[in-house]
Design brief:
The protein is mainly β. It has one domain: Jelly Rolls (Sandwich), CATH 2.60.120. The protein has one helix and nine strands. It has a five-stranded antiparallel sheet with strand order 1-2-9-4-7. The chain has a four-stranded antiparallel sheet with strand order 3-8-5-6, with no helix packed on it. It is globular.
Length: 110
């Protein structure tokens, strides 16, 4: 996705304008996709989850709105709007929205 395709050429934007919470769903939108890494916005309805999985890259979660429980290596973390959480490469993690929530995931490949 290019900078212009999501309206970045118009100046500052809000992640919550790029991805909306939908009833009973998890929705994502890729903001940046480069060989070095990705930035993806996710919207979760309350109670929606991603089951335990791992990724071969370090990742950083930024909560934009709402609250989630994110387990990293089996350890639960309550992450609220305005907070950040690091997830190391190859460590299993899972995500569950405690309420309607939006987060940004930055994955570093390089």
């Amino acid at each position: 996705m290019s900078y212009e395709s999501y309206g970045g050429d118009k100046g500052p934007f809000r992640m919550e304008d790029l991805v909306k919470v939908q009833d009973g769903s998890v929705v994502s939108r890729t903001v940046i996709d480069r060989p070095e890494g990705t930035v993806t916005a996710f919207a979760f309805d309350g109670g929606q989850a991603l089951s335990e999985h791992s990724a071969p890259y370090d990742a950083l979660v930024q909560m934009i709105q709402g609250a989630m429980e994110i387990k990293v290596g089996g350890v639960p973390h309550s992450v609220k709007a305005g907070e950040w959480l690091m997830m190391p490469a190859d460590v299993p993690h899972s995500v569950e929205a405690m309420e309607p929530s939006i987060m940004v995931l930055t994955m570093v490949r390089g």
